[in-house]
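testing teh design pipeline on a random one, pls ignore if ur not involved
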């Protein structure tokens, strides 16, 4: 009989993650698991150099060597950046991830390093559930040629570079009539990404169970241009109607230049990101703990 398999994804550039990964590996191997390690850097697609060949590989190229659907789960060590990277590495093979925060804010993580032993115990006892989060496939096309592609959990942001003029975007959402937006940029986000860049640009928070996407202009040049929420079954195509090249950033860790002859296609992925939950994941409580949302306002006493 084959051993149960566990994935271990960590930021190998940080000593704390390395030491913790070794500790976890030893613990699970002692319990009879086959542990497959991978660096989170494999999911950090990075930014394409405009002077070199574009990344024409599909999003499956991020799956680490040795990882497949036989892995029961993957433990991820790091902050939100590491989790976003691990999502690209695991979603195509449907492996759920348990994110343990060794970073700072850790909005996407499930638990903290201080509770590692308890989390490991729950995993070994199969005391966990899975929550699926929508992910997107972001593709840059020129004609019929795929020039760049990656999975996206939070958002795709397409914006001007410094010292360029106002940008125009023609945006086609599913079967609806195209719209024109004049702004410094546009953000296309999932419900998970509604608490990230989109929130900073004035978009609403969307609970993770809503089957929608959100389009948010960045510094729009019209009072009529506001965030739009629509069905996640609608594919979105963004045509940059601007003579200068633009910069596209996906989840803050990947991206490329988009030229006037390119278009960006965003569609819901068939592979949601699967998060392991050790306790009931109360979204409003997470908003309060991480972002201070909904906390009571208490006036400070006058010391004078």
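output:
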């Amino acid at each position: 009989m084959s051993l149960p398999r566990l994935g271990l994804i960590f930021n190998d550039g940080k000593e704390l993650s390395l030491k913790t990964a070794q500790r976890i590996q030893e613990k699970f191997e002692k319990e009879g698991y086959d542990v497959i390690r991978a660096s989170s850097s494999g999911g950090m697609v990075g930014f394409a150099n405009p002077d070199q060949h574009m990344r024409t590989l599909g999003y499956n190229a991020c799956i680490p060597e040795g990882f497949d659907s036989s892995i029961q789960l993957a433990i991820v060590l790091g902050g939100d950046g590491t989790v976003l990277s691990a999502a690209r590495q695991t979603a195509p093979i449907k492996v759920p991830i348990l994110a343990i925060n060794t970073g700072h804010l850790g909005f996407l993580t499930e638990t903290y390093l201080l509770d590692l032993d308890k989390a490991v115990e729950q995993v070994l006892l199969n005391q966990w559930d899975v929550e699926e989060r929508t992910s997107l496939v972001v593709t840059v096309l020129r004609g019929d040629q795929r020039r760049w592609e990656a999975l996206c959990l939070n958002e795709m942001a397409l914006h001007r570079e410094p010292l360029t003029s106002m940008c125009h975007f023609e945006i086609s959402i599913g079967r609806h009539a195209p719209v024109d937006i004049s702004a410094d940029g546009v953000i296309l986000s999932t419900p998970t990404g509604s608490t990230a860049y989109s929130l900073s640009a004035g978009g609403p928070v969307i609970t993770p169970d809503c089957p929608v996407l959100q389009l948010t202009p960045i510094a729009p040049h019209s009072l009529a241009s506001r965030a739009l929420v629509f069905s996640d079954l609608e594919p979105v195509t963004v045509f940059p109607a601007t003579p200068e090249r633009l910069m596209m950033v996906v989840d803050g860790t990947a991206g490329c230049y988009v030229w006037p002859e390119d278009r960006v296609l965003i569609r819901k992925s068939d592979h949601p990101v699967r998060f392991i939950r050790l306790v009931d994941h109360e979204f409003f409580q997470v908003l309060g703990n991480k972002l201070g949302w909904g906390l009571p306002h208490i006036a400070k006493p006058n010391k004078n």
